[in-house]
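dumping this here before i forget
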Amino acid sequence: MPDDRQSEKERKRRESLTLFIRSEAKAAGFDLCRITQPDGIPEARDRLDAYLDAGYHGTMDWMADTRERRGDPHALWGEVRSIVVFGMNYGPDEDPRDVLEKSDKAAISVYARHRDYHDVIKGRLKDIATRFAARSGEDVKVFVDTAPVMEKPLAAAAGLGWQGKHTNLVSRTYGSWLFLGSMFTTAELEPDAPEIDHCGSCRACLDSCPTAAFPAPYQLDARRCISYLTIEHKGSIDPELRPLIGNRIYGCDDCLAACPWNKFAREASEAKLKAREDLREPSIAFLLSLDDAAFRSFFSGSPIKRIGRDRFIRNVLIAAGNSGDAGLGAECRELAKDSSPIVRAMAVWALSRLMETGEFATFAAQRKNESDESVLDEWRLAGVS
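structure:
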């Protein structure tokens, strides 16, 4: 029958293209590659609406602005027929929480100790997409955390893992340590089965959060999340949360590192994903010394560079204030004269915790006129009118 021959031809084409994309993914260094369909996350839109309506996104207004496209892959690209989700392991070779016990050192999230994963993954995806388009004659689009794509629900639908109670993807083979990227295509590919939830009664990730950012399992209030506060949030950080941040200056790995499934994870083997040694446990004193030029140079190629020197130093000053090390007072006093209000404000807060009462009062009496309201707020918080 002609229809049967056509159907068989289409089936073989789907199988061939599916095998091709998996082979290309492996050759490019991806550890996982699975496929889902654009209608594979029907519950995502309602969950996104509930998240936004609760205000859990904080100041990330772009999430609300792209609500329509984010909640439905068809709204992002009407012609998409298949979505390929790629996973790359970045598992650390040590427990990233060990540095939290070293008050003179700064804790940087594991993912940010490498070259910016956006650049690494997107470059590889573009190469794969180019070859796939040439082979298939179909249209493709690639995304790596830079477009309104709900990558974690798509990854779960494709079978890479499941969204754990900490809302991050958990894999049975790589734990909580996976970078994700996706390729949308007009090609018909063979979809994979979704992964089921294997969290059970475990709540290790929830109990590990220093700021109690999980109002319930599978819910994250970004407004209390250290990763959000130190990376996405541009303004002053809630004074009540600052002591809980400890020495975490960029991101937080506590909930990821607490996941028991990490015992099955393997250390990242790709050379391009090996952590920079100087970002494992940098000293707080050194980081406080960075001016804008030094900051840009030191963090060249790092995702940390994207938040800018002033916001970064804000974070480091919070770590300094939490360190209990009066020896950092000299650096903090110098930063109290910085041109950036957010830096001056956090320098005041840090000094109020590092100096003896009398010493701080003397320092306050010697300060020059301050007109920025955010800095004045910190002086008032420290008991100085």
